[in-house]
Amino acid sequence: MAAQLAPLHYDVIVIGGGPGGYVCAIRLGQFGKKTLVVERDKLGGVCLNVGCIPSKALIHASKVYSKAKGGAAIGIVANDLAVDMAKMISWKDGITSKLSSGIGQLLKGNQVDVLTGSARFAGPGRLVVTKADGSLQEVVAQDVVIATGSTPIQIPGFVYDQKTILDSTGALALSEIPMTMAVLGGGVIGLELGDVFARLGTQVTVVEAMDRLLASLDPDLVRPVQQKQAKMGVKHLLGHKAMSWQQLPDGKAELKLQDSKGAVLKLVVDKVLVAVGRRPNSSDLGLEAVGLKPNTRGFIEVDECLRTAIPHIFAIGDVVGQPMLAHKASKEGEVAAEVIAGHKGARMDVACIPNVVYTDPEIATVGPMLFELEAQGKKTKTGRFHFAALGRAMTANAGEGFARVIADEKTGVVIGVQIVGAEASELIASAGLAVEMAATAQDIALTVHAHPTLAEALLEAALAASGQPLHQLK
Ligand code: NAI
After folding, report:
1. What is the distance in A from the centroid of ligand 1 to the CA of 213?
2. Which CATH class is domain 4-152+279-340?
3. Is there an atom of ligand 1 within 6 Å of 48 CB?
4. How many A from CA of 432 to the centre of ligand 1?
5. Residue 153 near ligand 1, beta carbon < 6 Å
6. Quick check: CB of 381 below 6 Å from ligand 1?
7. What is the Å distance from ligand 1's center to 409 Cα?
8. pLDDT averaged per 10 residues, the chain (length 474)
9. 20-38, pLDDT tens digit by residue?
10. Is the CB–ligand 1 distance for residue 257 below 6 Å?
C-alpha cells in the first residue's frame, strides 16, 4: 500500500470540480468555510472540458463554415473554402484550458484548496484520496458534498476505443473530418454533434431506438431540426437499435442494426459516435463505508436541501438525477453551500430550469411540454408566432421555427415557453424570468420589445396567448 500522509482537516470537502462542485466550493469559501475540492481530472468537469463548452465551440465553427459555403444566396461568394480541423480543435482546446484555469483562480481567490486525485469514503467525514502518483492522502471534514457527475452509457459490445467507437469526448477531439459517421442515439448529444459533423461534410446517419428524435420534447419543436438535418443529407433511422459491430479489413466499422420488427440492416461507416444517455458516477466512492446506498439506477437520492440519507453528506448535479444539466448542478451547489452554512430556508425551489438543445435551429424550453400538460388535463391557452413572419429573422436568413407561450387558461400566468429558432438559447432567459416571477402572458405582451429583434417572436406569441395578436391574423 502506498504511503499515507497525516490527515488534512477541513470544514467541507467537495468531491468533484465540475459546474456543481466548483460553484458549491466558491460559495462555501465566501461563507467562511475552510473548503477542499478533490478533482481527479481538470477543474470544470465534463461540461467545461469535454461537454458543453467544447461542443459549443465546434457548433459555432462549423456554422461559420456552412454559412460561408451557403452564402451565395445572400451575395457571399466563398471559393476555395476549407476546414483545418486540427486548427479548429486547438482553438477549442485553448478556450477550455483558459476557462479551467479561470476556475482555479476563482477557487484560490475564495481560499478554497484543490487536491488532484480520486476520493473514496473511509468512514463518516473521512476520505482517502489516491493521487496520480499512487500516493494516498487522508482528508477529514464535518460535511462532504458529492458532485461526481456522470459518464456516457456504453451499449453492450460497443466498447469505447476512441478510434472507431467514440463517446462525445472522442468525437470532440477528432483531428480529421470523417467521411461517414453513425450516431447511435437521436438525443441531445447525438443531434448536436451530428449537426457539427454534417456541416463539416461528414455523411451522418442517426440511429435511434425510438420512433422519434428528442422524444422528451413536443414533436413540433423537433420537426424543424429534423427537416434541416435531412436537408443537409443526414439520414434518420428511427425505430432502429444497434446490435453489434465488426471492424472490416479497411478499418471501417460494419454495424448490424435491427428495426422494431426484427429486420436486420447493415451500415458501414468510418466512425461510430455512441450517445445513448449518461449514468451517475456513484459506484467508485466507497459509499458502503458510510452506509449510503444509491437507488437502482445508481442515482444518490437527496431532499430539497440536497441532503442524502446520511447526516452531513450532501449530493448535487448529475449524480442525483435528471435533468443532467450544468446550470441545474450549479444552482444545487449554491443551495447545498447555503444549507451547510446554516442559512435558514435554503432549499432547491425553482419554478423552472431551462432546457436548451444547440441544434440548428436551436430548441429552448422552460416549463412542461404541451403533451405533458394535456396528459394532466391542464387547461391552457397558447399563443404561437413563426420566425418566418419576423423581420429580424428574415434579415438573419433564419426563418425556421416559432415561439410558443403557454399560459393558464383562467389566470393567464405563464406556465411554459417553447422556442425553436435562431438564438433560442438566448431568448429563453427572459421567458425563464417570466415563469420564475409568475408573470402573465399579458405582462410579456405589455413589455415593449426592441424592434427589430428575434425577441419579438416571444412578444408576438404572448400577444396571441392574451387574445390580442398583432402581426398575425386571429
Ligand atoms: P439522451 O437521453 O438525450 O438521448 C439518448 C437517446 O439514445 C434516446 O433518444 C434513446 O432512445 C436512444 N437510445 C438508447 N439506446 C439506444 C440504442 N441501443 N440504439 C439506438 N438508440 C438508443 O442522451 P445523450 O444525448 O447521450 O445526452 C446525455 C445527457 O447529457 C442528457 O440527459 C442531457 O441532459 C445532457 N446533455 C445536455 C446538453 C444540453 O443541455 N444542451 C448537451 C449534451 C448533453
Report:
1. 10
2. alpha beta
3. no
4. 24
5. no
6. no
7. 33
8. 79 98 98 98 97 98 96 92 96 97 98 98 97 96 98 96 98 97 98 98 98 98 98 98 97 97 97 98 97 98 98 98 97 98 96 97 98 98 98 96 98 98 98 98 98 98 97 90
9. 999 999 999 999 999 999 9
10. no
Side chain identity at 405, as an amino acid letter? V
Cα torsion through 54, 60, 62, 65, rounded to 10: -150
pTM: 0.97
Inter-residue contact 171 to 193 (CB < 8 Å): yes
The cell numbers describing 244, all together, are 453489434
User: Which atom of ligand 1 is nearest to 241's Cα?
Assistant: 19
CATH fold of 165-276, please?
Answer: FAD/NAD(P)-binding domain (3.50.50)
Same fold flag, 4-152+279-340 and 165-276: yes
CA proximity to 192, closest of 178, 175, 206? 206
CATH architecture, domain 355-465: 2-Layer Sandwich (3.30)
Q: Where are the domains of the chain?
A: 4-152+279-340, 165-276, 355-465
**451 included as an active-site residue:** yes
